[in-house]
Amino acid sequence: MSCQDMIKDLHSQLKDRHCNEIMNKHELNRTVYGYLEDIDHCIDDLCKKMETSTGESPSQSYSYKSAFSTNVTAADTPEEHVYETPEVYTHPLMDKLKENEDRLLRFEVLLNDKEQQLKLSAENALQLEEQLSSIKQSLYEIQIENMELKECLELSENKQLEMEDSSNQMLRELQVTMQRLADLEERFRCLNDKQYIQKDMEKPMYPVQYNYHNGDTWEDGSTAANIPARERGSSNYSREWESEDY
C-alpha cells in the first residue's frame, strides 16, 4: 500500500469515526493531534524511502503531507500518484489506532465499573450516614442518661452526707445522754451513800438485841414481845448433842 493510499484510508477512517465530533472534545483533540504528528513523521520517512527507491524528490511528495495535515476535515483528498515501482509499507499508526481503540474500550469498561462502584459507594454512604445518624442519636440519648445519672448520684451523695450529719448529730446527742446518765448514776450513788451514812449516824451507840424471825428477818426487842412464845424459840441452851453416841 502506498503512502497516498494509507493517507486516504486513514482519512476515511477519521471521517467515519466522526472526526468533527472528536475534534470538538478537548481530551481527544490531543490524541488526534498526536496522530497527525505521527503521520507527519511517517510521511517524512516515506518521502526519504521514495527518494532512495524511485529517485523522486521528497519535496514533490511532501505536498500530500501538507494537504492532509493542514485540513483534516477537507472533502478533497490528494490526487493519486502512480509510482513506477510501488512498494508496500506497514504504517505503525494503524496499529497505534487499534491499540488506542482497545484501550478506549477497556477504559469504557473500567469507567462503567467505576460508575457502578460509585453508585454502590453512594448507597453505602447513605446507609453509613443513616447508621451514623442513628449512632449519634444513641450517643445523645446516652449522654442525656449519663447527665440524669450524675444528677441522681449527686442527690444520693448529698442525701448520704445529710444522713451522715444526722447520724453524727444523733451520736453526739447519745453521748451527751450517756454522760448525763452516768452523772445521774453517780449522783444517785452519792445520795445512797449519804443515806447509808445518815442511817448509821442515827443508830444508838448501845447494842440492840435482835431476834431472828421467819428465817430471813431480823427484828429488834420491841417487836419480839408481840411474837408468841412457841414461835420465838427456846432461849435455854441445850447440849443434848454432846450426850449422843457416835
Annotation keywords:
mainly alpha; coiled coil; 246 residues; two-stranded antiparallel ribbon; 2 strands
- Could you give a short account of the major beta sheet? 2 strands, antiparallel
- Rounded to the nearest angstrom, the distance between the terminal CA atoms is 174 Å
Bin the helical content. over 70%
Which of globular, elongated, flat, extended, rod-shaped describes the shape?
A: rod-shaped
What is the typical, i.e. mean, pLDDT?
69
Structural class: mainly alpha
The ordered string of helix (H) and strand (E) elements is HHHHHEEHH
H/I helix tally: 7
Strand fraction equals: under 5%
Region (Disordered): 219-246
Keywords: Coiled coil
Coiled coil: 97-131, 167-194
Task: Summarize this structure briefly.
With 246 residues, the chain is mostly helical. It is built from 7 helices and 2 strands, in the order αααααββαα. The protein has a two-stranded antiparallel ribbon with strand order 1-2.
